[in-house]
User: Fold this.
Amino acid sequence: MSVSGPCLSCDTPGCTMQAHSDSDESFFERAWAVVAQIPVGRVTTYGDIAAHLGRRGAARIVGWALKDAVGGDLPCHRVVNRNGVLTGRRHFETPHVMAERLRSEGVTFVAEDQVDLDAHRWRPGEAE
DNA sequence: CCTGTGACTTTGG
DNA sequence: ACCAAAGCCACAG
Assistant:
């Protein structure tokens, strides 16, 4: 990305991350770029990422993109579904690493596989 | 070009 | 409140 200025596809105040505008990269790569910016100890949802990329109904695609990123450097464990449930835990090396990593970052849980979304939710474009 | 695939989300019973 | 069904959409074959 090389364009400067405010976000064109989201209404997050002060967002300067134009991951969706001016990009020759695929939707997958843009999704990865967003995930890479999730702060430690925070989580976000598939829907939020998709909406931020200007594709409101592409939440599923985001999850799909993450699947391709497992094993890489991306903090894919910080992405949960809209209820805070770790629906992607099955795609990790072992089903527990997702929760383990979150716990080690200080994220609290309301259930075995459900994080306290209200307490840790991060929206794409927010300050880290 | 058409079809299948899903780490999702919303809706209706 | 719980489950099933139907939208959803980028990407690969």
